[in-house]
Write a sequence for this structure.
């Protein structure tokens, strides 16, 4: 438990530095934020008023304290363009992105773990070479390009899957409790909604996960190979344990944790990479929101996105640590 | 230690040789590309707008009638140059911080590495986006943004290598002899870190390349009329259904370069990485 | 090959018959075990001796399909009258054999699954061998029985514990329990004690011998430790470069009939000339001590160290006089290396005083530090890591000269390097080469030459022999004694090997748990030890 | 602001649309689905100058007067009639008494006054068009008086963008931001449609308002849906698969190909939205020099642009004002002439200089025009750096002279078809970027200002025409802009869409209140 306390303190520290970095980021925006915020047609008085409203006339340290204080109350500021509290925007935009990333993660895990394990077991065989080739190719494909090609070929030409949106048009009035349509579909017993949402997720999730799967596969494979070389595997063989038993009972539980850490990091990276796919697939979400905020120089919104994605990243890592702890009650982590 | 005189010692299979060939080809055209392109890559010709591949224009023409082949070839320079700029600067900054941190030890080391850890917590694309928001959209901004988000990788790696080297008996030997600090850094640490760093560089090239083109794709990187591959794809996507060539070829260019650098990096790692060699 | 069989044995009494067996590694199409033939008799303890890289592990594991990277080439192997390999092709699968053969592997720290309770791991073996369900009471009671059989205290509690809660010796006992759980006919122990301390080593070997005699097991004991094999094995096969050179009964050894390599191996350090400088020392005693330590303390943050062992030093008092050879004896973890690093000022103690030639080391001026750094030199344990891999030998040695004798002309520096290399038994042609082009023994020579280049007053040697092969050990030890004969320098020799201390040292300090438990003249301390720990050390030696 | 390309397409009524609860007259049925590439910033009528906002609001709110789709003159909407005082400073409006807001409350003059007061307090962008408007007051429940500081000819036209909000609904939410936060996501109008779902990054749904004061006659849809789809290729695919009826943002190529396709229709509207390269005339750099601008003015080939980028959909401009407009003065801008430009460059040694242009990459023809200019300038040895931005970001850069780039691309969407809406917005020094207007050339000429002001305050059309013509000539002599094109509004749609008409006063909106879907 001491370990967790440590992790927690570290996360808090990370959070603090995260806010500091994002705050500084908001300071380097060119021009006067007040002018930008005032929008067209604002007079000099209005700008001056805004400047003091935004606290821009105070010293930097004081501004930072005010910023942190507001954050603590969940106030991420207002968007200069939608005039809405950014927190509300994010609460609306986060679930679709998380849904996408979770499905992409599932695809990633479902491919990486078993394939990595098998390819480590049959290291240096033709099967292994094929897996490695797949990993190489995956790691070289630009996410946005794959997304465009898949959308046009599978969605457009072949019409196998929907090309855009989160739900088919007929479900446009669908409202759930959580904003996660898959979950809402299940909660409300609307399986049609569930499957429709899933159908809309397949292409974007696959495009998003390909690069990460390639990396995940490679890392799993390496971890598993080094596990297969440990003497306990040899010992298990001398016990006449069957190969599946060795793979799933001995190697997998020991080889998976190191790659799990990487998957935890990937979760955050994937959330960042949604900027490359959401717009293409016409999905709402934090990535599309971020791109729009950046191109509009809506710096409060950008900073909020950076902060929120950073927090999700930290949480994902904490969850992974917890998972590792549960999976492996003893040893390793205390060291 | 392999001899570096034979620079291609690490490629074994025909596949790897092909990849190395592509890498050389990309570097060559990034140097001489402007002399071999059939057309001026920025010269518009609306009369030839979105013409499909033909003998005069083997890869077709884009929405402004520019020759896609010329743009793809000339884009290599932009991509390679910006990728290597990022890697070089990140290498210098990261290694300086990493090696300093390792030598300093104690709380300085602790703080620096904590910062690096936390920094790594930002998904690089989002961090780069934030940075691009602050700097405005341009290829230079994208390069700075990536440098800004990438350095901790090298700081951590070089610190790790330095600590590893510092734990070797030959450093203790140097210590016993009274070898001065600058000599330890330049003659002991750097040459021995070289292998690992070069592997990391080779593997990072493709990641940086993909990131730069990704940033250009979403519009915060290279600006028109620069023939950057990512922005070419962004430009062409509206015409995707009628003129696939404006999207497919730049994408293939990114794909083949990233793949080749990956394959070469992997081969390098296999041959140079002491951790893997031992196995 | 000298096959020294005492009697002709009928086929039924042979459990393992190997004929013309060759095996290579998958990646490299070259044989690493070449045309090996031997038979193992039922009930005997069959030793396989050889230095690292001789192919002994590859041989034993590959026969039973347990070496991942192995690639069978030729030969026949039969186990208990059944062919398992015929003309280089495996005819009986590993799984079928595994239950009849128990294995004990080299590294107890990795041979147990770290995330499974040890009771469960033994239980799994029982389940796989006898079909008793892992969760059944029957299975559990068998586990308890085995645990107590191999000497694990409190089996019921131990059952619930994880491997990392046990020391190396205990883990090896658990591995033995797993091997015994299948009630095998043949026990293969591959370097079972290499990773363990000397005192534990003896207990484990005794356990293996004891258990197998009791159960009537045949044992193949693979080891590089010749003394151990001599003391335990009924017959020994000696391997070198993938070939079996000799098979003989060590109790009836006739060295002349054996291969010259085998002879070197078995004579070991016996022929190294004993070094003694008693006469010289008489004069030196009167002089001032070179090094004087009083009440030195050193402690580390505990989390740095993993495998138990207290690495802190306390209350260290010692004196080293000019020209004498002093041994620091102790097991790993006793603090000898820490002490060496304090002597060479690589680490700073938390308390106590340390003076060199009567002056406080910690208040040296810059020039004095420089002088000290040329007076005190060190030779390290790992010859592979002790030279900068990016320096060729000339640069490596001349760096030392450049720092401490910058006035030396280029030419005389060159001459000096050649002289130093000749002194350690190499020649000038070595200068242009890089460390990786040399063998371990040669590297250790280069390291010694480099240390000697600045004419030190005292040479600190930290286990300089322990990573070398037995045959090389003798040569390097020879080099040290000839060095001592020629140069009037003091030496601190850190070792865990009593025999080495006997040969080289005038005086010894015995270290245990970071404290000096005993000291005195080498013969006196080793012949009539006063401390239990010293006694334990001596008893552990075969 | 975006370009004038709208399209629509036709197909069968989706069966589910019948399920939507609606109990009004039987001819209000069906769903109209419109694709849109840019998401709206908000729903606030204060931002009705922004076409993405305006396209939602145009049928949700009513104004005192309105331009009906397809018409170029105003008709009464909430106002029944009005009088202008002789000095042109006072306007008295009689307003309807039968108007109900969507919340059921009745409209009175208090709502009109409240609306204008709020806009003034929020310094709303729509007031830009209102000239010297000073204040509004309620005379009685159905009479409003508005006061101007100076006579202003197009005042009545300008009122067409002043959407009347319900005081009862908005006042409780005024807080410290003049109700901007609340109105950003809520509507308080009296128009034929009310907002039922507002998911600004996905979909906005409007439903026919049962109690609409104008009543329902003819064919209308019960539901209007805006789907936000950024990719032109996706819009096209959805149009083809029948998932949207109007897809305005597909490429010109695709529009061309749809002209001959069965089941689709392409409407070409006579738009009057000039696209400009505006040169920063207040710059300390080269573009501040009129002779340099003279050179630049000759480097853009409008004909090529019209023929190949716009595929012929549009008019060749020869000055900032559309040729058929009142007061148009011919050939105030120089024609394309690279040789003349080259001569100027050589004379002055301008080769080797670098300029910067900002533009909206989301608009196909803007990017094409930038590329065209880049290509031509590079032949003269001048490097033109481009920076793609979004509208608000670009607008923010011109609010400071230091951050204004050498050249800015901007579309002028006149709020009503009057020369004032184009010339005053783009060339009056009161409307320079740093004053918050659309004069991004930061062009300031007191004589031009005087001419424009005089024309604005005059009611005599022929006098105004003369004044505007003179202003154009003076502007032309200083080369503050290149008028790139006057594109037509090309809208492709499903042929099931009936009743679509291009609305010149509400460019890039859809008259969904008049449309029915077969």
């Amino acid at each position: 438990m001491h370990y967790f306390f440590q992790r927690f303190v570290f996360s808090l520290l990370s959070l603090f530095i995260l806010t500091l970095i994002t705050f500084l980021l908001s300071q380097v925006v060119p021009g006067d934020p007040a002018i930008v915020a005032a929008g067209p047609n604002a007079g000099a008085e209005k700008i001056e008023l805004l400047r003091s409203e935004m606290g821009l006339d105070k010293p930097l340290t004081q501004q930072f304290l005010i910023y942190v204080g507001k954050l603590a109350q969940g106030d991420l500021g207002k968007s200069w363009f939608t005039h809405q509290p950014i927190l509300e925007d994010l609460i609306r935009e986060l679930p679709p992105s998380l849904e996408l990333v979770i499905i992409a993660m599932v695809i990633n895990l479902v491919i990486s773990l078993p394939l990595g394990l098998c390819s480590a077991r049959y290291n240096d065989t033709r099967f292994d070479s094929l897996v490695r080739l797949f990993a190489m190719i995956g790691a070289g494909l630009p996410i946005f390009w794959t997304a465009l090609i898949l959308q046009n070929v599978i969605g457009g030409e072949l019409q196998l899957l929907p090309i855009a949106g989160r739900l088919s048009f007929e479900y446009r009035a669908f409202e759930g409790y959580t904003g996660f349509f898959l979950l809402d579909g299940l909660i409300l017993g609307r399986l049609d909604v569930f499957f429709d949402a899933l159908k809309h997720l397949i292409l974007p999730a696959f495009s998003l996960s390909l690069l990460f799967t390639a990396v995940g596969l490679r890392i799993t494979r390496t971890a598993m190979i080094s596990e297969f070389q440990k003497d306990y595997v040899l010992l298990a063989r001398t016990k006449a344990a069957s190969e599946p038993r060795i793979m799933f009972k001995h190697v997998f539980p020991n080889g998976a944790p190191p790659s799990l850490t990487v998957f935890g990091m990937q979760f955050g990276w994937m959330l960042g990479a949604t900027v490359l796919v959401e717009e293409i697939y016409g999905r709402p979400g934090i990535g599309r929101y971020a791109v729009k905020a950046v191109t509009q120089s809506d710096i409060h919104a950008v900073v909020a996105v950076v902060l929120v994605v950073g927090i999700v990243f930290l949480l994902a890592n904490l969850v992974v640590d917890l998972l590792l702890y549960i999976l492996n009650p003893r040893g390793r982590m205390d060291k | 230690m392999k001899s570096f005189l034979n620079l291609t010692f690490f490629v074994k299979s025909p596949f790897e040789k092909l990849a190395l060939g592509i890498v050389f080809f990309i570097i060559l055209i990034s140097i001489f590309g402007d002399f071999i392109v059939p057309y001026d890559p920025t010269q518009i010709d609306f009369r030839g707008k979105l013409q499909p591949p033909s003998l005069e224009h083997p890869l077709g023409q884009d929405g402004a009638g520019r020759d896609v082949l010329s743009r793809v070839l000339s884009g290599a320079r932009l991509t390679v140059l910006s990728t290597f700029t990022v890697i070089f600067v990140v290498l210098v900054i990261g290694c300086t911080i990493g090696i300093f941190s390792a030598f300093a030890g104690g709380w300085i080391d602790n703080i620096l590495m904590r910062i690096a850890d936390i920094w790594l917590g930002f998904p690089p694309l989002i961090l780069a986006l934030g940075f691009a928001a602050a700097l405005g959209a341009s290829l230079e901004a994208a390069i700075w943004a990536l440098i800004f988000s990438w350095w901790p990788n090298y700081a951590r790696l070089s610190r790790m290598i330095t600590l590893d080297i510092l734990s070797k008996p030959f450093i203790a030997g140097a210590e016993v002899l009274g070898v001065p600090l600058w000599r330890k850094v330049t003659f002991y640490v750097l040459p021995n870190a070289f292998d690992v760093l070069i592997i990391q560089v080779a593997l990072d090239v493709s990641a940086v390349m993909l990131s730069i083109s990704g940033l250009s794709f979403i519009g915060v990187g290279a600006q028109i009329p620069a023939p950057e591959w990512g922005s070419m794809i962004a430009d062409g996507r509206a015409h995707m259904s009628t003129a696939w060539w404006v999207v497919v070829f730049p994408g293939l260019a990114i794909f083949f370069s990233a793949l080749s650098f990956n394959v070469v990096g992997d081969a390098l790692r296999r041959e140079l990485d002491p951790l893997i060699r031992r196995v | 090959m000298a096959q020294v069989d005492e009697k002709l044995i009928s086929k039924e009494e042979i459990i393992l018959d190997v004929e013309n067996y060759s095996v290579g590694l998958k990646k490299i199409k070259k044989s690493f075990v070449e045309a090996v033939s031997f038979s193992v008799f039922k009930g005997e303890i069959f030793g396989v001796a050889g230095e690292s890289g001789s192919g002994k592990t590859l041989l034993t594991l590959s026969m039973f399909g347990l070496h991942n990277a192995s690639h069978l080439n030729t030969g026949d192997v039969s186990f208990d009258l059944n062919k398992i390999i015929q003309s280089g092709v495996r005819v009986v699968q590993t799984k079928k054999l595994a239950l009849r053969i128990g294995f004990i592997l080299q590294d107890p720290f990795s041979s147990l699954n770290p995330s499974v309770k040890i009771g469960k791991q033994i239980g799994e073996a029982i389940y796989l061998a006898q079909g008793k369900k892992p969760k059944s009471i029957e299975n559990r009671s068998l586990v308890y029985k085995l645990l107590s059989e191999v000497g694990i205290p409190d089996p019921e509690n131990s059952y619930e514990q994880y491997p990392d809660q046990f020391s190396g010796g205990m883990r090896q006992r658990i591995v033995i329990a797993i091997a015994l759980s299948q009630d095998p006919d043949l026990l293969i122990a591959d370097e079972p004690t290499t990773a363990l301390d000397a005192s534990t080593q003896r207990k484990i070997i005794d356990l293996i011998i004891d258990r197998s005699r009791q159960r009537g097991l045949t044992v193949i004991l693979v080891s590089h430790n010749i003394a151990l094999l001599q003391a335990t094995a009924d017959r020994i096969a000696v391997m070198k470069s993938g070939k079996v050179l000799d098979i003989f009964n060590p109790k009836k050894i006739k060295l002349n009939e054996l291969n010259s390599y085998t002879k070197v191996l078995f004579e070991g350090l016996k022929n190294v000339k004993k070094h003694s400088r008693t006469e010289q020392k008489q004069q030196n005693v009167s002089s001032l001590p070179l090094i004087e330590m009083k009440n030195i303390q050193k402690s580390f943050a505990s989390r740095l160290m993993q495998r138990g062992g207290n690495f802190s030093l306390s209350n260290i008092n010692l004196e080293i006089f000019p020209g004498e050879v002093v041994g620091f004896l102790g097991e790993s973890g006793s603090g000898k290396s820490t002490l060496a690093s304090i002597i060479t000022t690589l680490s700073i103690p938390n308390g106590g005083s340390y003076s060199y030639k009567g002056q406080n080391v910690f208040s040296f001026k810059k020039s004095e530090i420089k002088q000290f750094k040329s007076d005190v030199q060190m030779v390290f344990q790992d010859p592979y890591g002790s030279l900068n891999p990016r320096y060729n030998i000339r640069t490596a040695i001349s760096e030392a000269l450049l720092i401490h004798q910058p006035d030396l002309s280029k030419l005389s520096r060159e001459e000096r390097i050649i002289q130093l290399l000749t002194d350690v038994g190499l020649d000038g042609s070595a200068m242009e080469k890089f460390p990786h082009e040399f063998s371990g023994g040669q590297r250790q020579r280069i390291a010694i030459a480099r240390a000697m280049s600045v004419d030190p007053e005292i040479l600190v040697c930290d286990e300089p022999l322990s990573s070398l092969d037995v045959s090389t050990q003798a040569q390097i030890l020879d080099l040290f004694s000839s060095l001592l004969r020629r140069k009037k320098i003091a030496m601190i020799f850190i070792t865990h090997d009593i025999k080495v201390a006997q040969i080289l040292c005038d005086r010894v300090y015995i270290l245990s748990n970071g404290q000096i438990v005993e000291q005195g003249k080498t013969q006196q301390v080793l012949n009539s030890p006063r401390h239990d720990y010293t006694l334990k050390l001596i008893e552990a030696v075969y | 602001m975006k370009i004038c390309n709208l399209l629509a397409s036709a197909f069968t009524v989706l069966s589910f649309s019948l399920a939507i609860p609606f109990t009004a007259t039987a001819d209000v049925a069906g769903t109209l689905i419109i694709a849109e590439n840019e998401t709206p910033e908000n729903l606030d009528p204060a931002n009705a100058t922004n076409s993405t906002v305006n396209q939602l609001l145009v049928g949700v709110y009513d104004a005192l007067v309105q331009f009906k789709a397809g018409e170029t003159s105003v008709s009464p909407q909430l106002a029944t009639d009005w009088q202008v005082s002789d000095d042109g400073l006072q306007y008295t409006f009689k307003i309807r008494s039968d108007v109900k807001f969507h919340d059921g409350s009745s409209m009175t003059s208090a709502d009109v006054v409240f609306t204008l007061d709020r806009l003034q307090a929020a310094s709303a962008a729509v007031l830009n068009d209102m000239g010297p408007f000073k204040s509004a007051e309620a005379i009685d429940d159905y009479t409003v008086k508005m006061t101007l500081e100076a006579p202003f000819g197009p005042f009545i036209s300008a009122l067409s963008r002043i959407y009347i909000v319900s005081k009862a609904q908005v006042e409780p939410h005024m807080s410290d931001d003049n109700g901007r936060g609340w109105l950003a996501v809520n509507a308080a109008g009296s128009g034929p449609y009310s907002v039922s779902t507002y998911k600004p990054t996905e979909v906005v749904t409007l439903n026919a308002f049962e109690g609409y004061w104008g009543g329902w006659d003819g064919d209308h849809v019960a539901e209007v849906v805006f789907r936000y789809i950024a990719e032109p290729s996706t819009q096209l695919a959805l149009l083809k698969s029948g998932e949207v009826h109007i897809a305005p943002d597909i490429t010109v190529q695709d529009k061309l190909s749809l002209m001959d396709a069965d089941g689709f229709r392409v409407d070409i509207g006579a738009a009057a939205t000039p696209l400009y390269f505006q040169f920063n005339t207040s710059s300390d750099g080269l573009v501040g020099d009129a002779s340099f601008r003279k050179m630049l003015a000759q480097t853009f080939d409008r004909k090529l642009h019209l023929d190949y980028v716009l595929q012929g959909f549009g008019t060749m401009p020869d000055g900032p004002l559309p040729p058929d407009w009142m007061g148009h003065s011919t050939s105030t801008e120089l024609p394309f002439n690279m040789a003349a430009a080259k001569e100027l460059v050589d004379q002055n040694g301008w080769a080797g200089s670098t300029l910067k242009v900002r533009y909206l990459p989301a608009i196909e023809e803007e990017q094409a025009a930038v590329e065209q200019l880049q290509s031509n300038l590079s032949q003269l040895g001048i490097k033109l750096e481009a920076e793609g931005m979004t509208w608000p970001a670009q607008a923010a850069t011109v609010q400071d002279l230091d951050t204004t780039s050498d050249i800015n691309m901007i579309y002028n969407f006149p709020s009503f078809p009057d020369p004032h809406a184009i010339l005053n917005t783009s060339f009056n020094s009161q409307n320079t970027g740093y004053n918050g207007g659309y004069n991004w050339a930061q062009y300031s000429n007191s004589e031009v200002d005087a001419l424009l002001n005089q024309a604005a305050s005059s009611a005599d059309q022929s006098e105004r025409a003369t004044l505007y013509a003179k202003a154009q000539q003076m502007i032309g002599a200083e080369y503050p802009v290149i008028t790139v094109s006057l594109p037509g509004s090309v809208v492709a749609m499903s042929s099931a869409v009936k009743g679509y008409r291009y609305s010149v006063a509400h460019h890039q909106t859809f008259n969904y209140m008049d449309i029915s879907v077969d």
The longest strand of chain D covers residues 133-140. Residues 1-26 of chain D have pLDDT under 50 and may be disordered. The two ends of chain D are 31 Å apart (CA to CA). Chain D is about 25% helix and 20% strand.
